[in-house]
Each structure stands twice: as C-alpha cells, then as structure tokens.
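Section 5.1 Outputs to date
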Amino acid sequence: MPQYVEFSVPEPQNEDEILVKVKAVAIKHFDKGLVNGTHYASSEPRSGGKVIGGDGVCMLPNGNRVYAIGISGMLAEKATINRHRCVAIPDKLDDATAAALPNAVYGAAMALRFKGNIQSGDTVLINGATGFTGRVALQLAKYYGAGKTIVTGRDRQSLGDLLLSGADEAISVKLNDDAFLSAVHELHQKTPIQVVIDYLWGRTAEIILSAIKGHGDFTVRTRFVSVGSVTWDLINLSAASLRGTDLQLTGSGLGAWSAAQVDELFNNILPETFALAADGKLKVETLQVPIADIGSLWDLQVPGGKRLVVTV
C-alpha cells in the first residue's frame, strides 16, 4: 500500500537526465500491477520502498510544461526524466487530462496504427471498450478513418454512452456464449471486421475468433491485436481459426514495438493527440486527488471510463 512519506530528491546521473517539478501523475492498472507484482514487467520489490509512477506532467527548469517518462518515480514533488522522452503540452490542455491521456494513447493508437494497420473504411471491433483506454480507442479509430465501429463491454449504460459518442454497434459481453457469438458473427457477415482491438482476452476473445472463422470460403484479412487481458490471460485457440481465416494475431505493448515506432509515438502521435484533446476533439474524464491522500485513495473505486490522476 503506497504511503505519503519523505524521500530524498533524486539526482540526474548523466547529461540526458534533468530534474523537474511534477504536476500530475495518472494511476493506471499498469502502475498497480507493478506495485503488486502482477504485471509481466514488474520486478522484485525494493527494500525500503520506492517512488512509483512511470510518467506524468512536469515543469522543466525553463518553465515549459511537458509530459515525460520518469527515470526516477514520478509520483513525487520532484523527479528526474530523460530530456529526449518528453512532449510539449498545449497551453489549453489541463494537467490532469495531459497526464491521463498518454497511457491510453499507448494502448489505442499504437495498436490501431502499427499492429492493426488501420485503413480508411475499415470495420473496427473494440473488445472491452467501456474502460478509459477503450473509449480513447473508439475516438481514435474514428479519427483514423474507421468506416464502422463495434464496441463490447459489460455495463449497459457505458455501452449506451459509447453509441452516443459515435460507435455504430454495441454488444454486451454479459450475453451467453451462443448469443455473443451470434451477434459478432452476424455483424461480421454484414460488414467484415478488419481490425479487432482486444482489451479483455479470455473467453470473449475465443468467441470473437470463432465468430470470424471462415468455413471453406475466402475471408477478409482480420488483424486481431491483444492489448490487455482483463478477464483472463489464457485462451483456447482452435487450429481451424488459423487455417480457416486470413488472420493476423499479434500483441501491442511493452516489448512489441520497434524503436522507430516509439520515436513516432513521441515525435508525432502524442503531440497530435494532445492537440486533439486541447481542441475538444478527443475527450477523456478524470478523477483528481491530491498526492497527500494517495495512501487512503489507492483502493478508490474509480467510476467506469475515468482515470485516477494524482495532482502534486
């Protein structure tokens, strides 16, 4: 359980590192997974504790406000960052939104652009779209030219909100297996699904793969991109799905991107999405708490579709 305690001010270790004043840090499932040791990128716990938070909004020594990846933990008043891994934030964009948006962009734009290879007119299915990243994925899919968007999720109200936000079709994952398969299959027959961005994995992924499987005829290529595994980390994959479908099955996350793609993220994708948010064309919701309350708020139930942001 995180605590609000004193740590020594971190010191830059080389000319690429600089000390900054932190303004806001988003708390994601990734951060909690690292702390709990449940994320695949987590390491052994450090004796004496450590400052958490991998990224956030901060002030450079010259007064410019940027989003940056931390070298030291970012959930603190001061942190060190790599001067080459920061992005300027438009004046019109508030700290909380600027802190909350990037991780969702990692999970949405990178999957759509580089793994899903989204093309204008594509039909895109977002499995698990009612969460914070899924909502960003819907907006970016439309921005990148999706011809039709299909969303899935558990919460009926959230699915309704997504339809109002521009989704063309919504399917509840609370349907029984046969009904869920039938709903996906029917939509796939009407408008073949070219891109699946999957945040759930588990049983729903199995059913979607079965629903798009061909039966001895030619099929449209489907790029299925695994981004998260909220419901379960393993699936049963039929060999028939691979033989009967023009299927590209891949993942998007740490270790799955090339250096050139990460450069594109920082040089172009993040600045572009910050500009969209500043102009009100990309919308997210946040729940803000002060850093002094982080210990008591760690287990706070954040409303669906919102991101917890700690202000410093």
